[in-house]
Structure formats: structure tokens, C-alpha cells
Amino acid sequence: MTLRLMTWNVHGGIGPDRRFDLGRVRDLIARHRPDVFALQELDTRGRGPECLTPLRALAGEEGYLAQARTIVTPDGDYGHALFSRWPLTDIAVHDVSQGRREPRSALEARFAVGDVSCHIVAVHLGLGIGERWRQARRLVEIAAAGRPADLRVMMGDFNDWFPWRPVRRSLAHAFPERTRLRTFPARRPILRLDRIYSTAPVVASWTDTAARACSDHLPVIADIDIATPGNAALNVSAPAGGGLFRA
């Protein structure tokens, strides 16, 4: 039994043509039919929250969505979000900002897939080396706060590109599995900024170069193995409303 995850920095919904279009972002996500996905750089400033409607539709009629608003203005906000085909519970937004640098946060939630309890954290880390190192230490603490029996996942834009990779090294013990895809810049990716970390085996991972028309990052999609002994009753059928996820 696998769970399909996806993370993508959508660059505010603005592609290389400088056109805002979350419809094409939605269409690309729908093509891969993730069960849970995280999006970074969601920007509703000057457009209103209704601009997220195309993305909300992906989570079915219930719209299982959790948001981390790192910049809030009178005409909208900026941040990142989690979308799920199952209800998200125990939602918490952790401020991992450092000094006067751009505000950053880690979005924590929990969902259940049949008998499997999943603890997930979506992130968008900073650009400074020391900033990311301190943020990584905080992420380890957040991951450790999950229940011992949980399947744990952390995904997002980690901005971790230097050879010594402080974030990757910090998370290696807590998350033995990770993706290894080059995602930035989208036109000719050389950096592995966007990743999915998991305590469950990653059985397949890939990206989609069609995303070049939508953002400066490529997405990361991964199937992870969540099968456990004695879990024959696992039920992953879609909730009422269905959305565009796998049935």
C-alpha cells in the first residue's frame, strides 16, 4: 500500500511568462493525483483568498487544507499550505523565523490512512546558511514530538544547496528515507532544494518538466510504502466528494 506525496514551490502562481495562473498549477498537480501535497510561495496579495479556489477543488468538496501565513497584509497573504484527501487534525504553525530575515514557518498536521497515523510537517526554509542550520535543529524537535508509532513525513523547499547540507545532515537520523531530485532552476535544474523526507520507504520518486511553464521550481512527487504487518483492514478510499485524487 502506497501513499503519494507531492511538494512544489509554485513561485506565487507566476510562470516564466509573468502570468498569474493557478489553473495550470492545478492541472499539473491533478495529473499526478497526490494524496497529500504541500505548496510553497502561495500569494493571495492583491487577489483575495478566492484565487486559491482552483487548488481547493483538488482536496474534494470538504477542502482539507491547512495554511501557514508568513506575511499578512490587508489585501491578502503569503505563505505555504498543505492539502489532503483526508481530514487534517492537530494543526500547528511553528514560527522558525531567524532575526530580521524573511519570516519562515513549519506547518505541522496529522491525518489517518485507515489504521496508519501520519505525522506531517511542511516547510519553506530560509536562504542563509546559519539561518537554515538553526531551523533544521527546530525541525528535528518538531519531528521528535510525534507519537513513536506514527509514520512521519517532512517535505517542502529546504533551500539547502551547499556541499555540507546542514539541513539534510540534521534530518538524516529522524528521516532515513528521502528523495534526491534536482528541482531548481526549473529550466535547467542543478540544485536539490525541494525534498520529501520519510520514515517509510520511498518506492518511487519523480518530477515533471512541464512545470517549467508554471514556476521556477520543479515539483517532487513520491510514493511511499505505508503497509504494515497486520494492517489488512487498511482503507484508503476517497472521502465523500472525491476531488481529483486517486480513488
Automatic annotation (TrEMBL):
GO terms for molecular function: endonuclease activity; exonuclease activity. Keywords: Endonuclease, Exonuclease, Hydrolase, Nuclease. SUPFAM superfamilies: DNase I-like (SSF56219). Residues 6-217 form the Endonuclease/exonuclease/phosphatase domain. It comes from the Bacteria. GO terms for cellular component: membrane. The keyword Nuclease applies. One of its GO terms (biological process) is GPI anchor biosynthetic process. This is Metal-dependent hydrolase, endonuclease/exonuclease/phosphatase family.
